[in-house]
Structures
1.
Amino acid sequence: MEEVKNNGEAAEKQLNFIEEIIENDLASGRCTSVLTRFPPEPNGYLHIGHAKSICLNFGLAKKYGGKTNIRFDDTNPTKEDVEYVDSIKEDVKWLGFEWANEFYASDYFEQLYEWACVLIRKGLAYVDDQTQEEIRAGRGTVSTPGVNSPYRDRSVEENLTLFRQMREGRFKEGEKVLRAKIDMAHPNMLLRDPLMYRINYSHHHRTGNKWCIYPMYDFAHGQCDSIEHITHSICTLEFDVHRPLYDWFIEKLEIYPSHQYEFARLNLTYTVMSKRKLLELVKNGYVMGWDDPRMPTICGIRRRGYTPESIRLFAEKVGVAKRDNTIDLSLLEWCVREDLNRRSNRYMAVLNPVKLVITNWEKGRVEEFEAPLNPAEPDGAKRKIPFAGELYIERDDFMEEPPKKYFRLKPGGEVRLKYTYIVKCEEVIKDSDGNITEIRCTYDPASKPGAGEWRSVKGTIHWVSVADAEKLEVRLIDKLFTEPYMDSIEEGRDYKDYLNPDSMKVVSAYAEPALLKDESGIAVQFERVGYFVKDRDSVPGNPVFNKTAALKDTFKK
Ligand code: ATP
Ligand code: MG
């Protein structure tokens, strides 16, 4: 990750291209302050790509002393729902941002309708009776011009009447549309008389049945930006071909000139980000829900134990690119480790236990050790850890026939039990199948930390006292897909073919008792194992923890 760090630092000093534009605009007087917007369509839950856009829009405004609106692009009642509105607001707040205003494209339906009439009056829009297929066919191709609609030359009066009747519900869905009159031979296909309005009788989650005509994205977005006086309307690259249309409407309507700028959308390895696919994963039960800790949704990542700080750091490290690219999932993991390593409380937990019995320990004796919750603050808060003669250790921390440089426990070998004594392996007990069931050790009373001279041994392992252990259900979470580049999978295969069957393994684990009293509210570190966060599925007697990240980069380069 060294490379990433260096690039990140370099990028911090240099302005990204949008910052350059903003600084030029402020210097030239095109604008005197910065107003951005985050414009989600409430048709699904936000994902990490949206988080990038949120951090960018809010981050730029913050940097230049400006503000950011949240605007729900609710122009398609068929797929939208208030459930999504609520989750989007929650996610933006969780990321740590406050919007100046909460707006809805539907707030502007009346104004947009009036502006459509303005264009009709200027002879720049007309009602078309062609079917969807006829309109598509008439549009031509990249290499051949389109043909004018037979309805293109309707009079202003007729167009105004028909458009009003569209609004009044006199026509069926698809019977009529309103189109801008631009140029059916324009090299940019989007300018070949694009649709402005279509008829849709679905119930709208805010305006109910008041409207049965809805503006298309292109006739809504720029106009909404303009109404709010958005200075920098930032969107993803695929909208660059829409920009001439964005500008055309604003110019012809003679309204406040917002400007659109495009940056590369964020893609991440080993996952999919299209809302359609995420919805399918949820609906078909491939995951537990939108907030399944394996999902790239913001609520999923949150449930996974990621912090807002780590997501903001990620957005910063990713930077602002002009060309599409796919970011390695390991960068996201690096960011959460960076944050949690600094802040998280430490506890010991054993995920794959084998019993260690100390044969020279007095029966019934319990000793209590203290350890800092966070090693970065050795004088800070501490937790108490009970120690006794029967312990769980990690199966992997013992090897009967170890390789040369194995410093953990082995027959005849010594190891320190973290924060406590040194033990020596004296005997290994196995069942009839040859599985190790118990490791018998003796402890060295003189090796107690703080009691006399410190004796060092090469290995230190973590442990949990059997009598005081809290049993946990632990979800070992891994990548959702097996393929890094899910956007370029083999032709003829479905993205679901690449679901990782091992994306979530549930195991029983044992933890020191203080873990369940943790009040930090963020993920904790299981020492030597990784970062884990308590899940909302926990019930008294069955605490559930999700694995947030490993301690080290587990990706093979
Ligand atoms: P999807 O294609 O996943 O359904 P969308 O683009 O339709 O997403 P919107 O709700 O319209 O979703 O997006 C809101 C804002 O977030 C837009 O400005 C959009 O450009 C931005 N955005 C969406 N996906 C990404 C991404 N992967 N990276 C960066 N920005 C994104
Ligand atoms: Mg969209």
2.
Amino acid sequence: MCGIVGYVGKKQSVEVLLEALSRLEYRGYDSAGVAVLNGKGVEIRRKAGKLQGLMESIHKKPVNGHIGIGHTRWATHGEPSERNSHPHTSESGSIAIVHNGIIENYAELKEKLLAKGYKFKSQTDTEIVVHLIAEHAKKLSIEEAFRKTLTQLRGSYAICLVSKDEPDRLYAARFGSPLLVGIGKGEGFFASDAPAILGLTREVMYLNDGDFVVLTASDVKVSTVAGKAVKRKITSIDWDLSAARKDGYDHYMLKEIHEQPAAIEQTLFNRLDLDKNEITFDAKTKKFLNNLSKQERVIIISCGTAYHAGLVGEYMLEEYAHMPVDVDLASEFRYRGPMLDKNTTIIAITQSGETADTLAGIRMAKKHGSKVLAICNVMGSSIAREADAVIYTHAGPEIAVASTKAYTAQVTALILLTLYLTKQRKLVTATKWKSLLKGLHELPKTVEKALATEADVKTLSAKYASLRNFYYLGRRYNFPSALEGALKLKEVCPLIHAEGYAAGEMKHGPISLIHMGWPVVFVATDSPVYEKVVSNIQEVRARRGECIVVASEGNEEIRKNVDSLIHVPKTEELFSPIVVAVPLQFFAYYVACANQCDVDQPPNLAKSVTVE
Ligand code: F6R
């Protein structure tokens, strides 16, 4: 989604801003811009389209100055165009702001500004903010005018401001959209996301909702909007810059698919202890889990791919830990008035930790006295900070818009959680426990073997790349795999429509579309319902559909029922969604490449969805 950066220091700010913005490109955006104090005033440069266009125009006509702000925009109010790109300026041009989020009462505020004679150059909600600041600044200092404006806004925001009249400082505020401060030697940064400033500094200060910041090259002052000073911890980013680069791969998505064994290893690290024959968590998480009541009800909330991980979690928590689990799309959960109480635990699954619906869902649940456990990838993110306990996936930065390694790491975290609770509730025999731990320990290697499907899947993708509609079918633990496989394909290859269904559901409707050559991807790995899946394959073949089947290694019998076959390593059923995900990710990736799609930044999509 939109990205924000800010810089104050001794360097040419435009160079820092463009470098930082380029690191936020993965979030998805449709236009970009910067505002720099050039010694005379605020100089604005904006361009619709990719950042490269903005870079080229700045290269032709440089902008000089040591303080500035920058933005990549993902359109919400108004089409992607130069005039709607950020930064937006006051009428005099002396104040510029960049904004992430949505101002919900912008129409009402705009009416008032129009009545006062303000003229609007863009269709954005952001422009009202800069005019309001300018209006208040007629009587107040910039800082006070900014604070007063914030009290009038409803919705979500991270805003950075630069003003000609205050040439040594930047201002920023956050409410509902992520923002952090980077602290360097004699320089300071703002960024909506830590990778933006990786390589520039490692010291960051994550801001809370309601924080207001004054940043100079030598100082950071954080306060509430009302002006009460608050302290925020400085933490050190432990990610490596190389983790945010492509390392020779054509796309981040491909790199991240290949990183899955390492990501899973990281998720298991310090939690799976084969020597002690146990699964453990940090003290806070253990305390949280040990305090769950026998009657505890679990609601998993999440969005998109993380929702699919949640669905896998439902199968395992119910089967192994005997806990009643519901899985909700966070965007539905927050508005359907769910029954919540202190015996309900919410598990919020999220890569970014910033997804607006998931964040709103946990806030609502906490108000009703429910407890919140987050499964999250980004340390210090809003959801991680607001949850009562966190299981970090430690998958490393995920740059491609389409989630791959974060998904399999989320499922791994759910396995750890399930097995911990299963043991705690004495629901597993010693022999089964041993074999589960062994399988879990081998999971990174098993996924490594699944990566060996790449060449075959690539060949297969070439065969099917010209088709425009796909079904994905699976059952039990691999029903979510079908949903995830279909989501991956339509996400990275927007020319294709793909739909996932529970295989048993097909005859209740979707089968009506099956005709000669219609491609159906089946997940038919070993499971108690394997034969039922084979029956579903027969139903498609009877209508001359094209069956692309993912089956367990060693299953040669199935060859007679398929048009294309992908073998994946054998595993316990609860590990299978992780192994199955790999060829489905490759399939989506290579079909998209064959169709020349922008794999890492598909149109209309954003990495971190910080608006409703
Ligand atoms: C799909 C994808 C999205 C995210 C969803 C939730 O590949 O990336 O569907 O899974 O937007 O995001 P997080 O996990 O950051 O809450």
